[in-house]
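User: Structure with S-adenosyl-L-homocysteine, tokens only please.
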Amino acid sequence: MARDDRTQNQDDPRDAERRELLRQIAAEVAETAHWLGKDRLAPEVMAAMGRVPRHAFVPRMEEALAYRNRPLPIGHGQTISQPFVVALMTELAAVGSGSRVLEIGTGSGYQAAVLAETGAEVWSIEALPELAGEAARRLKEQGYDKVHCRQGDGARGWPEVAPFDAILVTAAAAAIPPALIDQLKPGGRLIIPLGLPDGAIRFSARQDLLRIEKAADGTLKKQIVLPVAFVPLIAPRQDED
Ligand code: SAH
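Assistant:
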């Protein structure tokens, strides 16, 4: 666990904010239990959420809001996801020590940090060069050595290091990118918001979060988990890779 040393500090005023955030996530899980089929998340997931300093992953002017249970702008028209959604996706991925995880849409790097705090090794792809560079620097500064970052089109996956135990897509896709299914291990999980944002109002989206499990024989078991609102997956220019 990368940050045990610093986040256990009793004097950090942000510890109280992080504990309050965990309470709010637990409350939202309980409120959506009819969708999720469970009324609490794994203690390992909550512990991972409690260890990541979210304020280090948001722009300085948003720092005061870092521990609110809401998405925040991170520039370039993108957002850091709502903590409840990050926790839920981590739970659905069912990863831990020794797991290999691919994330599409590094954004701020926050979801990648939470995954790393479960003990997983993480490969994360970001389309926008500015965000990719910032996130890689931030994750390194925060000591997340088990997160590997790359700029490029996540829809193609990361074939050189596949297969993965879990793949998380943190932007909404119109369809499941076939490369991601190919790069899942048998028994692997793909967590992906499917559907498109409403064109008129950016976050008035019509999307569902899906959990897709690839069986040993390659067949897919799909489960619709919850309605969600993500920014859209974009198709970066070929020459940006
Ligand atoms: N997981 C992020 C939130 C991501 S917002 C976090 O924890 O902060 C979605 C991100 O996906 C944005 O940064 C966006 O630039 C990126 N993105 C969109 N389309 C992409 C693509 N085809 N490949 C890789 N990243 C993409």
